[in-house]
UniProtKB/TrEMBL annotation:
<feature type="transmembrane region" description="Helical">
    <location>
        <begin position="175"/>
        <end position="199"/>
    </location>
</feature>
<dbReference type="InterPro" id="IPR035919">
    <property type="entry name" value="EAL_sf"/>
</dbReference>
<feature type="transmembrane region" description="Helical">
    <location>
        <begin position="112"/>
        <end position="134"/>
    </location>
</feature>
<dbReference type="InterPro" id="IPR001633">
    <property type="entry name" value="EAL_dom"/>
</dbReference>
<feature type="transmembrane region" description="Helical">
    <location>
        <begin position="78"/>
        <end position="105"/>
    </location>
</feature>
<dbReference type="InterPro" id="IPR000160">
    <property type="entry name" value="GGDEF_dom"/>
</dbReference>
<dbReference type="InterPro" id="IPR052155">
    <property type="entry name" value="Biofilm_reg_signaling"/>
</dbReference>
<dbReference type="Pfam" id="PF00990">
    <property type="entry name" value="GGDEF"/>
</dbReference>
<feature type="domain" description="GGDEF">
    <location>
        <begin position="433"/>
        <end position="566"/>
    </location>
</feature>
<keyword id="KW-0472">Membrane</keyword>
<feature type="transmembrane region" description="Helical">
    <location>
        <begin position="211"/>
        <end position="237"/>
    </location>
</feature>
<dbReference type="InterPro" id="IPR029787">
    <property type="entry name" value="Nucleotide_cyclase"/>
</dbReference>
<dbReference type="Pfam" id="PF03707">
    <property type="entry name" value="MHYT"/>
</dbReference>
<dbReference type="InterPro" id="IPR005330">
    <property type="entry name" value="MHYT_dom"/>
</dbReference>
<keyword id="KW-0175">Coiled coil</keyword>
<protein>
    <submittedName>
        <fullName>EAL domain-containing protein</fullName>
    </submittedName>
</protein>
<keyword id="KW-0812">Transmembrane</keyword>
Amino acid sequence: MFRVFSCLTVEHDFRLVVLAGLVCFVASIVAVSIFHRAIAARARTRLIWIAIAGAAIGYGIWATHFVAMLAYEPGVTTGYGIVLTALSLATAMLLTSGGFGVAVGDSGRWRAAAGGVIIGGGIASMHYLGMWALEVPGRVAWSLDLIFVSIILGMCLGYAALAVAIRYQNYRGTLAAAVLLTLAIVSHHFTAMGAVQIMPDPTRATGALSLSPAVLALAIAGVALSVLGMSLIGVLADRRLASRTAKFEEIISQLSDARQQLEDSQQELQDQTVRLDTAINHMVEGLCMFDAEKRLVVCNERYARLYRLPPELLRTGTSHTDIIRHRIVKGILTGDSSEGAAEQFISKLAALPFDAVSSRIDEFADGRLIRVTRQPMTGGGWVATHLDVTEQRRSEAKITHMAQHDALTDLPNRVLLRERMEHAIAVTRNGGLDLAVLMLDLDRFKEVNDTLGHPAGDSLLRAVAARLRECTTETALIARLGGDEFAVIDYVTNPAVEAAALAENIRKALCEPFDLGDHRVTVGTSIGIAIAPRDGNDSDVIMKSADLALYSAKSGGRGAFRFFEPELDELMHARRNLERDMRDALAGRQFELHYQPFVSAATGKTIGFEALLRWHHPQRGLVLPSEFIPLAEETGLIVPLGEWVLRTACAEAAKWPAYVRIAINLSPAQFRSTELVPVVVGALASSGIAPHRLELEVTETVIMHDSDAVFAVLAQLRELGVRIALDDFGTGYSSLSFLQRFPFDKVKIDRSFVGELSSARAEAHHLARAVVRFAVSLGKTTTAEGVETKEQLDILREEGCAETQGYYFSRPMPASDIATMLREDSGAAIRAA
Ligand SMILES: Nc1nc2c(ncn2[C@@H]2O[C@@H]3COP(=O)(O)O[C@H]4[C@@H](O)[C@H](n5cnc6c(=O)[nH]c(N)nc65)O[C@@H]4COP(=O)(O)O[C@H]3[C@H]2O)c(=O)[nH]1
């Protein structure tokens, strides 16, 4: 080590040592940079870069050596053999190229080590060949250990330089690797120089082909620096070029990506276009789009088919007017299909604004209805859909018709009537015209329905509707309100005359018999008339007025018409009050039963009592059944009231002797309630009277309402053991048929006939007697009602009537009088005898 140090400090010119180090460092930077290029390159380019790197460092080692040799002052004049000098250069280049070549390969971690060894070998070869070329007049002695150390230093530092160069390929890596490589070369050189000792020997002469060291060294340093500088510039330029190339490649790659994306987008666009085409061509609606210049942009197949557009009109750019002209001239739309009409339509269309959403229905000549909905687009133009709404419109019209018409007669129903009436009443408010509102219902419709069945009832209603159409003018509106209720409204200028004439026409028309196939029936009608605005100026009020007039017409005897009068309103008011009072009466125990005895015609003995309702009104006093029973039936109050009668009368009868019967009146509404049989059973059970003591009186009116159902209930009651009596016999025309259909226990001859028995009018007397005789001949128990005189009683006895009832025996009495009456019964019997 000391030898090396003294060699460096004593035998070398330090300035030239620095120059040698500089040359070496520059060469190292160049070589490492080129080596990095070689790593980045492939195949042949890599080989070229390796060769250049080897040449650069080989040249650098060689130049360093000779510059350092210039600094060497061994004390004798030196020269260099040209051949060996050249050979040392070639060896350095070749071996360092080999070292770089090995190190640059991809095969494992040993590459830097192997490369370092070879480069170290290259440095040593160059040095010792160079020393061999040294021609001095003296003897050269070598120190083998330092030779060995110099070789190891070159190899180890060479390895370190390569390892760093491979690992760090940036500027810092380059610098570090260059420093290590410089150290490898320089440390080798000066260690090797420490190993040499030159002993002057003037007998030894230098060769003729020797180069002067100073010349050689300076020339080498100059050339080396310039070559290395150029190489460095080349490398840096190449780096920049490489970085630009990289950037360029990156741009190319980005462009290629962009191109790929563009191609993908184009494909996607194409796919979307196909999808869109498929979608618009499968739309239910016809679709078309026009631009701001009213030229066709796109349309679908449905649109083309709808208007039978030929291919030349389907091209993009076809003008809207050409398409419109085609639609009209080809007669696709209803109306005039001439060219003139088309032009007229087109100019009308041109005047229309195109910048608002619009919707219209076009009617096609073949009857189809197309809804055209137009939607403006931003930037001008519009898109329009054309939907065939024929079926939808038909269904809507059908539904509307069904909602406003009666299914059986196809007449307007209450809903439409109200709508039209509101409109008509509004017309009457302008003055000049009045509106006659006729409300009518059929007399005896229920009878037809019950006796001939519902199909016959339906046929009758249809026939009535047809007759109403025939006997009214075209301005009249006929409506069916439900059941057998109809209404007719019409404008009139003189209500008293025209409305009366219309009502009379209708009355007459409906009085005529109806032929219902197997049956011929006569019904008749009652009509109520109200006039708007006189009797009300809204549809509800006027309908109510007509209804009141109808009610009045019916209660005044059927088959008539009545005009509304304000008093009717009062009547209805009174009815409503009565109804309310009746409900209170039921709760407030204002009802009472009176009992009228019926007696045996033969013995004069009381055999039963008929229960008759009395109402003690707190303000009006005693109210008779004829006043409240019809209203109780209408309102349904008769059901709870009848139940009360049944329970009370049976309970009262339980106090009487067992041979005394109790007769109770039943009304139609009680039969419609399903509770009748259970109520009767309950009354019998709670009173404990025997069923045969109970007589239930039914009138023909009861039976006429749904006779089958009534007969079924009567049969159940009779099975219980209860006696059934037919009341008011002789007043109805169908009594006979009822008597055939049901085994009544008793027939009660109406008091109107009994009264005529003592009549001075022979005809009435004969008729009354015939009725009594007929009743008796039926073989049922016969009771004569309303016996007021001894004469009547005698005739009834003569005709064989079994039982009698009337004021002649007793008026209806409170329950409290019955016990006394029964005690005096023997007296009554004596009187009868
Ligand atoms: N002029 C005259 N009249 C006589 C004579 N004898 C009896 N009368 C009256 O004739 C009616 C007989 O009852 P109706 O024919 O069943 O006729 C009854 C019956 O249909 C009905 N009614 C009475 N009470 C009830 C009831 O509790 N339930 C039901 N559903 N109807 C009842 O009211 C109708 C009238 O009953 P009332 O006013 O009590 O009138 C009773 C009675 O007072 C007489 O000699 N001369």
